[in-house]
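Postdoc handover notes: sequence design on the structure in folder B. Input tokens:
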């Protein structure tokens, strides 16, 4: 039986070395490019010939746009409107990466902690910069909410600081762990289908059910990543 973790192996396609840094173009890089290209083609094609009565693909694009727009408005407020393009791009990139990973013999780049941590750090650093730009040094008041008794400060401040700086870790681990675990489990069950002969109908049924669950998880995890990014942005703009 093939190792179920083989599907996560990074393979070099075009070797590139910059000094001592390995900057090779890999299968992960390839599927990131495919994800960006797929989203770009889908959105440009659907809105290029806009119709008053939208067709199937235009309806899907408009629903996604409205879905993310409502997410930003509900979690950030009207002040989050300038940041909608970033949240929308983040959501579509993760969603497309997750869905591409469901294609047999493809590669799920969102199952690698380097990718998810990179996106999480981008959100973390970006929201922190926004917070400082809007509030200046008053941003440090985020770690000690107004009205908190002074004698609680020595305990509360370290907890708040630790909680704030673990945001990118929790954000990246959630996406990475769910995608890795789901794809690994699916591969394990699929490996038993032919190995068990007639009894393979049991792992086959489990694989079908898990595939449906993985599609749901692919959409859900993109949503969770985007909505948490909105919540962090809300904290940066409104300070609790």
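Designed sequence:
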């Amino acid at each position: 039986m093939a190792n179920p973790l083989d599907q996560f192996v990074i393979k070099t396609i075009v070797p590139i070395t910059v000094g001592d840094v390995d900057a090779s173009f890999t299968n992960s890089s390839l599927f990131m490019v495919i994800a960006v290209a797929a989203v770009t083609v889908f959105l440009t094609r659907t809105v290029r010939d806009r119709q008053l009565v939208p067709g199937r693909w235009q309806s899907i694009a408009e629903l996604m746009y409205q879905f993310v727009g409502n997410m930003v408005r509900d979690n950030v407020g009207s002040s989050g409107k300038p940041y909608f393009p970033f949240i929308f791009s983040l959501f579509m990139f993760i969603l497309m990466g997750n869905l591409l990973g469901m294609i047999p013999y493809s590669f799920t780049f969102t199952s690698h902690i380097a990718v998810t941590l990179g996106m999480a750090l981008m959100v973390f650093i970006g929201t922190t910069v926004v917070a400082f730009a809007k509030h200046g040094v008053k941003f440090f008041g985020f770690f000690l909410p107004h009205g908190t008794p002074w004698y609680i400060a020595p305990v509360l401040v370290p907890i708040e600081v630790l909680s704030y700086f673990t945001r990118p870790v929790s954000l990246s681990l959630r996406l990475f762990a769910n995608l890795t675990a789901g794809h690994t489990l699916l591969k394990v069950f699929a490996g038993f289908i032919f190995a068990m002969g007639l009894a393979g109908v049991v792992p086959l049924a489990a694989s079908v059910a898990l595939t449906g669950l993985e599609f749901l998880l692919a959409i859900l995890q993109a949503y969770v990543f985007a909505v948490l990014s909105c919540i962090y942005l809300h904290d940066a703009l409104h300070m609790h």
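Context for whoever picks this up: The chain is about 70% helix and 5% strand. Don't rerun without checking with the PI first.
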